[in-house]
User: What shape does this take?
Amino acid sequence: MSEDFIETATKKANQCYEYWDEIYSKAREDLLFQSDDPYAQWGREEAEARRKAGRPVLTIDQLSQFVNQVSNDIRMNTPSIDIIPAGGGASQELADIYQGLIRNIEYDSDADSAYDNGVNFAIKCGIGYLRVDHDYENALSFDQSLYIERVVNPFSVLLDVNSIEPDGSDAKYCFILDKMDMEDYKEKYPDASTESFSVSEHYTNDRKGDEITLAEYFYIEEKPITLILDGDEARIMEEGEEPYEGMVTRESTANVVHRVKMNGEEELERTTFPGDYIPVIPVYGEEAWEDGKRNLLSLIRRSKEAQMMFNYWTSTEAELLKKAPKSHIIAVEGTTEDYADDYLNPDKAPVMRYKQVDSSNKPAAPPQFTPPPQVPMGIVNARQQTTQDIRATMGLYDSFLGQQDNAISGVAIQARQGEGNRAVFHFADNLVRSITQVGRVLVSAIPEIYDTPRVVRIIGKEDTNDMVGINGMYVDGQEQNYSLAQGQYSVKVSTGASYSTMRQEASDAYQSIISSQPQLMSVMGDLLFKYMDFPGAQSIAERIKKTMDPNIIDDEVDPQVMQMQMQNEQLQQGVQMLEGQIGQLQEQLGDKQAEIAIKAESERADQESDVRKHEIDLEKLRIEEQSKLGELRLKQEELALKQEELRLKQAEAIVRQENKERDDFKEYVVQLDDRGNFT
Assistant: This one.
């Protein structure tokens, strides 16, 4: 059965190697490109050919500054694991104990170095790993503890080929290959086979007879279980427990994580790992999928060719300068001989002297310096362009490195820096996902590792140390029993400045406050020195604390007094709230009254305005009426005048008619007399 197991495991390991081989090959090339190998950024054949020809082979690394900048920015914002109650009898108090215990695990195992190592590999070559393990606290203890380790060789890990989650949480198996010195191996396993675990030539390239390759194989077995609904919570039916009428059950599975250490022929050790997850967590760089196949890119993957071009143009520039003739001095014979040392070492002579006559004692021109050789502008421009290409392929520019660019205002500078941060944000974000999975692994493993009555140290958010008894153990002042097997908990990771950075910021803030208001020294002087790091600062803080008003220091007040003070403060707050509400109501009432008065005044003004408007309209009508009456009178007078003129004209016509008739009659009478017919 053991041979079948080894054969199956070897087959899985080879499948993993085929899946990861291309990704790891590219990752190795990225790491080599950033190494101190003199041919790393050239290629050995081309570099050797140039050296043999006496041509420069310069490597002016432009990439490391960006790698370090991104890596160090992430280090300055250390992710923090937060634990949240998620049911099953969980409480916030137990969640705080879980969180403090995990902080202690991180502190004891130097988890920061593991996180930094994992993300640094992700930035440099596209993939890194973290792992969680457990061991006895010391050689004389029966208690075990969890710890977080860094994986210094990510290429030794072969993760489940079917895992697609960015944190590896869905992985069902994993191999970690390790080479062991043969003498140490025989001492530890004297009766075991010396056959290496064979995956490929790369992994089994052992020094003949001097070392052996072993595999640490994790795999998950899904064990069938029966769930019972007990009240509002579900629990696992225990072995031998009989179902009863009305019992609500459901078939499910529970994960059992096996760990097997083996050589190429047999198992050397077999144990189970606590919890539900494979305790090996990947930290991916830039993740890309194409046709269901994963590809992982480093920060510098797309910038390597631009870096190679930069090295080429820099070497070409140096080669041209090397071959170009040096600057010369042209002088008439006899003008410089007396100052020969100055002209042989012009850099040491602040003043270049010469004679104004030549060897024949005739006036001579001063010595002429020929200009130094010039580098072709095409090469200079090409080198500058490759520098821009390096930055463009990473999306990082001078402002990201703190250098001045064409952004003048603070807003513009912050915007440009923000663009750079967003261009590489996925590296920090993937680390957060991986640390979240580390938190899940720890939370699922803690009830099994910390399952005995014991006292554990928990570390608070301010790096405070407290001792807490768990699983039936108590410490002085502890009134409640804390069982870590109780409840279910979720994990959230938050990012921000490290606590040491926050301490410095707090110290600066307190100093600024007390400098502007010295009277507050008696109120918060202990806090000022509490967050300082020079020797004796904590002692000063404690001494100042003893001189302060006990009412200010919560931990020195009697609990009953504290309760009364809290009630008094609550009442005062209630009174202040009521006073504030009354003030608001009075303000609202005053505003309402003012609004009514303004409205009334406005209405009165509107009414007066309407009356005035009516009076103006009536006056206009009166004026219009008088105007019309005047016009009518004028027309009547004009009509009377016209009638009088007509009457006069008629009278004149009558008079003329009468005069004419009279004249006609007189003429007629005269004519009759002349005829003699009138008697």
